[in-house]
């Protein structure tokens, strides 16, 4: 019987789906748990489902001789050694769009928290009076960096609520309700800026001090994508210089000192990489990953491939 290795547990209906398809499966805590794998089982695994974003240990690729696919349980694949996988004729896949609604709603929630200044107006005792004045979303310009599934869904939500939506994307995209602009213009005219772009060599730390200096409206900046798009220290400097009014993060870089400073500020809210953690999203991502594994085992190619293999 074909066997699948889960790097991180999946929701019950997903595990039932694996069994219904006729596969056995084992579960490891995460993608860094290779040492816990029984060497006698190395040859049994044909597919891996990687749930979380920690880097996938390369030994899963080099030591499992019959491995055919690493299926990401989500959209991002920057934690998978894709070049090594391709060299070993191992497919890499993702589940585009499966978490779009969840992440878009989370970004919207962060934006509203900061726009309405809930942090300052949170009641600590009965009869506390409001001390801060918030703002309305209607009529604001919302700039979206990245026009993928999540960015577009966030744009739709913002547009329905009365915002003027503009977006930046590295390639040309069409939209019936949003205007594509360059990155400098987006930072110059936006009241709210939300990052929805993957990390690549071209986009790593793309949000720089110089880019933030283009802001003219003290925008709110939201990042629910990847921490390596903007350094904590850059955000901190933007806040200290009054170039940004507030920051909402679901992800951040690894500089703990600057993160601690951000966490201490009243105009910053940080959630713990929970944007995609809804019951609906977890099920959709897991089922999508399972379908990719099943497609490779049965038909030789995943439904949502990230890499290209030279297989005769």
Automatic annotation (TrEMBL):
<dbReference type="Pfam" id="PF02826">
    <property type="entry name" value="2-Hacid_dh_C"/>
</dbReference>
<comment type="similarity">
    <text>Belongs to the D-isomer specific 2-hydroxyacid dehydrogenase family.</text>
</comment>
<feature type="domain" description="D-isomer specific 2-hydroxyacid dehydrogenase catalytic">
    <location>
        <begin position="12"/>
        <end position="307"/>
    </location>
</feature>
<dbReference type="GO" id="GO:0030267">
    <property type="term" value="F:glyoxylate reductase (NADPH) activity"/>
</dbReference>
<dbReference type="InterPro" id="IPR006140">
    <property type="entry name" value="D-isomer_DH_NAD-bd"/>
</dbReference>
<dbReference type="InterPro" id="IPR050223">
    <property type="entry name" value="D-isomer_2-hydroxyacid_DH"/>
</dbReference>
<dbReference type="InterPro" id="IPR006139">
    <property type="entry name" value="D-isomer_2_OHA_DH_cat_dom"/>
</dbReference>
<keyword id="KW-0560">Oxidoreductase</keyword>
<dbReference type="GO" id="GO:0051287">
    <property type="term" value="F:NAD binding"/>
</dbReference>
<dbReference type="InterPro" id="IPR036291">
    <property type="entry name" value="NAD(P)-bd_dom_sf"/>
</dbReference>
<feature type="domain" description="D-isomer specific 2-hydroxyacid dehydrogenase NAD-binding">
    <location>
        <begin position="126"/>
        <end position="275"/>
    </location>
</feature>
<dbReference type="GO" id="GO:0005829">
    <property type="term" value="C:cytosol"/>
</dbReference>
<dbReference type="Pfam" id="PF00389">
    <property type="entry name" value="2-Hacid_dh"/>
</dbReference>
<dbReference type="GO" id="GO:0016618">
    <property type="term" value="F:hydroxypyruvate reductase [NAD(P)H] activity"/>
</dbReference>
<protein>
    <submittedName>
        <fullName>Lactate dehydrogenase related dehydrogenase</fullName>
    </submittedName>
</protein>
């Amino acid at each position: 019987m074909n066997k699948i290795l889960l790097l991180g547990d999946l929701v019950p209906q997903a595990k039932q789906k694996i069994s219904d398809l006729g596969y056995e499966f084992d579960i490891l805590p995460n993608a860094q748990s290779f040492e816990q794998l029984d060497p006698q089982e190395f040859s049994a695994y044909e597919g891996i489902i990687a749930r979380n974003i920690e880097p996938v240990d390369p030994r899963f690729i080099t030591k499992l001789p019959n491995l055919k696919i690493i299926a990401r349980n989500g959209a991002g694949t920057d934690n998978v050694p894709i070049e090594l996988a391709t060299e070993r004729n191992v497919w890499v896949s993702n589940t585009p769009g499966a978490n779009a609604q969840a992440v878009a709603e989370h970004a919207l929630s962060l934006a509203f928290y900061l726009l309405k200044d809930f942090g300052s107006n949170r009641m600590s005792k009965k009869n506390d009076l409001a001390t801060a004045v918030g703002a309305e979303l209607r009529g604001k310009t919302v700039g979206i960096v990245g026009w993928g599934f999540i960015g577009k869904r966030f744009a739709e939500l913002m547009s329905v609520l009365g915002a003027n939506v503009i977006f930046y994307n590295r390639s040309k995209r069409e939209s019936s309700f949003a205007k594509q602009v360059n990155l400098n213009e987006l930072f110059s005219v936006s009241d709210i800026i939300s990052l929805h772009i993957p990390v690549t060599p071209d986009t790593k730390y793309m949000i720089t001090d110089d880019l933030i200096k283009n802001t003219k409206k003290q925008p709110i900046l939201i990042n629910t994508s990847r921490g390596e798009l903007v350094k904590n220290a850059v955000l901190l400097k933007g806040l200290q210089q009054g170039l940004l009014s507030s920051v909402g993060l679901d992800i951040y870089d690894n500089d703990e000192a600057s993160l601690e400073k951000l966490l201490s500020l009243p105009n910053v809210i940080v959630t713990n990489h929970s944007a995609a953690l809804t019951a609906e999203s977890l099920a959709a991502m897991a089922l999508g990953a399972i379908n990719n594994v099943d497609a490779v085992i049965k038909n030789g190619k995943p439904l949502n491939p990230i890499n290209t293999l030279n297989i005769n």
